[in-house]
Each structure stands twice: as structure tokens, then as C-alpha cells.
Amino acid sequence: MSIISRSSLSNVHGGLARALGNKVDAPNPKNELGKLEKMLSKLAEALGGKNGAGDAQGKFKADKEDTLELLSKLLKMLGFPGSEEEILNQLKSLNPGSKDGKLQAGQQVRLPSPGGINGDSTFTPASTRSGPSLGGPSSIGPGSGVSGASGAAPLTNGQHAVGHDVPYINQLSPSGADGSYTNGAMNCGPTAMAMIARDMGFGAGMTDAQLINHLGQIGGTNSSEGTNVNGIVAMANAMGKNAQINQGTDTSWMVDQLRQGKQVVALGDFHAMPPHQDESRTSGHFVTVTGMDANGNFLVRDPADPNVRAVSPEQMAHFLGSHPAGGHQVAIG
């Protein structure tokens, strides 16, 4: 599944033209703008492939006239952090045979994850900014129901036994994205909350991109550090909802909150979440937990990867505990 829709491609048309320094009124495969749009579409498919965004290395197949410089421009347009020069340097490091920036037709190009080549630069709103946890319970008891040691295999149909589904929004290509939507790679926090907002009816009259930007302003999301947990609380309060924070990897608290009819925003490590696991990398990431299935798996909406659906309690605990800034669970309701 592509991480960017056809409508999103048309929204960045003007940006593509500016990138080329080429004024063209409509995409045409025979002109340079048409070539760049084709490249953008291929890149979007590579990032949204079976392994999910952030684990797309080796998935982009170059055409004859593709270059690493054009790739860096497109990755920047998709919201990757850093300057075009920094992204280009990452591409060169990942593809040492293409130091001159030229690509061969059919060449498999390794792509950086949105968190950067080293994966430690916060792909999305990681709680790397220090701050007190607001509203944390003074004592947390085990919730009744599913045991954290159940080891249930994820279901593929994602049917809710507890909780309910919410509309999916992709942080890199939300509906309505245009030139004002520039922080996609760091917007997992406000996107996780935007999905809950849509479910609650908050933000009517806004596109998904406008809603994410609006919530990001409330939560203090920025392009270098993303969002901290207190920002999630601020967004919830602006939506007229209470938020309670629990820190740690004990998923029984999450189970209890879901059984109370709440939804949970969890902060952990993007690279610890299947199906895009890569234990050699780390990058802070927020996801929305909407409920549980009949086997006791958590049902997850990942703002960066629509392929994430059902996660076992052990996998959720691993996600929560794998990033230094992780281990935060925020119940919204």
C-alpha cells in the first residue's frame, strides 16, 4: 500500500515544479515534471510496501535518469527530517556504489528510514524532551482479563472484541496535504491523536492534514524533537477529554483502560513493532491502540504503517520498552 495517495501527488505538483525550477501547468509523462511525479509515485510505493514505512531499504528500483539528488528532494517533500543535503548524504552512505549520485536503470536503491540512517534521530514524535508526566496514577493495579503472558498470535482480520475501529490517517500523506504540511516525519503524535479526534467527531471542517497541524500546535510538536507525552495530554484536553499517563511496560494497565472504553496512545520504538521490526535501529514513535481482539491481541493504528494491525501483549511490551524515551501509555477518555 502506498504511503501517499493520488490526490496527495497532485497537491505536491507545485512543489515538484519548484524543485525542478520548471513551470508546467499539468503533469505530463513527456516532460521533466511528469518524470519527477512518476518517481515520487514509485518512491511512495517503496515506502508503503509490505515491510512498511521506515523499513523500505532496497525497495526502490531506479529508472535510467533517476539520481540520488532527485530522491533527496522527494524524500524532503514527503516530510523526512533534515535538509536536502543531509538526506542526500544519507542516501550516499547507504548506497556507496553511487557516490556520484548517478543511478543505473534497475538498480535497487537503499532508502533511509524517516528516522535517519542511524535510526536514533526520532523518526516521529519521540519523548526526547524531558518533562514531568502529567496525570500519572499514583498506584497501578493489574487490570482484569488478558494476561500479558498470553502469547496470542495476531489475527489478520483485526476484529474488535474490546473497543472499536477508528479511521486510519497516515502521518506522511494525510488527506488534504499541501505545501503547508511539512512536518510529516515528526507528526506521529498529533496523527495518533487525530485518529481519535475523528472517532470522537472533533475537527469537523478540517482536512486530516489541517487537523494534524492544529493538534501539533496545541501539543508543541516541532521538526527536531516531535512531541512529548505532555503534548499528547494537551491535545486530549483541547478535545474535551481527560488523559491519564502510566509509565512502564506492564500492558495490564492498558488492558484495563481499554476495557473501560478508553483508547490509548502508546510511546515506544518504531523499529520494535512488527511487521517492520529492525532490532539494529531505534526511533521513538507514537501509535494508537483502539482495543483488543478475541485472542487478547492489541489492535493498533500506526500513523506510519497501515500494515500494523494486531500486536500480541509481548510484542506491545517490547515496543514500549525498546526506546529510551518510551514506556508511556496515555489513556484518552
> How would a crystallographer describe the biggest sheet?
7 strands, antiparallel
Gyration radius, in Å:
20 Å
Secondary structure tally: strands: 9
- How much is the average pLDDT? 74
What are its keywords?
seven-stranded antiparallel beta sheet, globular, alpha+beta, 333 residues, 31% helix, two-stranded antiparallel ribbon
Structure description:
It is globular, with a radius of gyration of 20 Å. Mean pLDDT is 74; it is low at 1-30, 49-58 and 115-156. It has helices at residues 6-11, 13-20, 32-47, 68-77, 84-94, 188-200, 208-219, 229-238, 251-259, 313-321, and strands spanning 60-61, 108-109, 162-163, 243-247, 263-269, 284-292, 298-301, 310-311, 328-332. It is an alpha+beta fold and 333 residues long. The strands form two sheets. Strands 3, 4, 5, 6, 7, 8 and 9 form a seven-stranded antiparallel beta sheet that branches. Strands 1-2 form a two-stranded antiparallel sheet. Helix content is 31%, strand content 11%. It contains ten helices and nine strands.
Task: Please specify the SSE layout and strand pairing.
Blueprint: H1 6-11, H2 13-20, H3 32-47, E1 60-61, H4 68-77, H5 84-94, E2 108-109, E3 162-163, H6 188-200, H7 208-219, H8 229-238, E4 243-247, H9 251-259, E5 263-269, E6 284-292, E7 298-301, E8 310-311, H10 313-321, E9 328-332
Antiparallel strand pairs: 1-2, 3-6, 4-9, 5-6, 5-9, 6-7, 7-8
Helix pairs in contact: 2-3, 3-4, 4-5, 6-7, 7-8
